[in-house]
Amino acid sequence: MRLFLSSYRFGAHQDRFLELVGGGRRALVVANACDSWPASARASAVTSDVVPLQKLGFQVEELDLRQFVGATNALRKRLETTDVLWVRGGNTFVLRAQFGRCGADVVVPELLRTDSFVYAGYSAGACLMTPTLHGLEIEDPVDEVLPTCGIDPIWTGLGLVDHAIVPHWDSPELGQTGSKVVSELQRLGVPHQTLRDDQAIIVDDGSAEVF
Question: What is d(CA 195, CA 178) in angstroms, rounded to the nearest whole number?
Fold first, then answer.
């Protein structure tokens, strides 16, 4: 299993991302964490992640999970064709709900365990891999889930790392919300790792390391 989990895109570790991927250059971008945003803002978010990958030589397409609701087998076949699944930030709870609606929360872990592709997620995309999303409601509006996805929020992550992740640590844009998330995780007794925007967690063959 290969995971590249960061606070913001490549962080300061683009070279390590490329090492993890190896020679493959097919990438699918998932922007469903932005589904509650206005259409123009969501489209801009997709472009902002497609372009950096293209500049690195990747052949990039968007994978919109909304198109695979009720079509889990088709989603599996689509994922089997990629070398990288790039999952961007936004609202973690919206992203988790969209993964649940199409069965990606089952298919993605299964394929990762067979090393089918690299999962690269930042911010919400990184938090999705953790055991629990509790505490993140301080940063991400949970009330966006039902009107956007048609289901109630899901509070469990995919559990492929054994601790919670607090992204954008010490980011001036977020003010004190990161500290509030950490305080809540401490209150709940949840192990956690803070990540600055230049940091990343890399999991390769079962070993995890913070860079």
Answer: 10
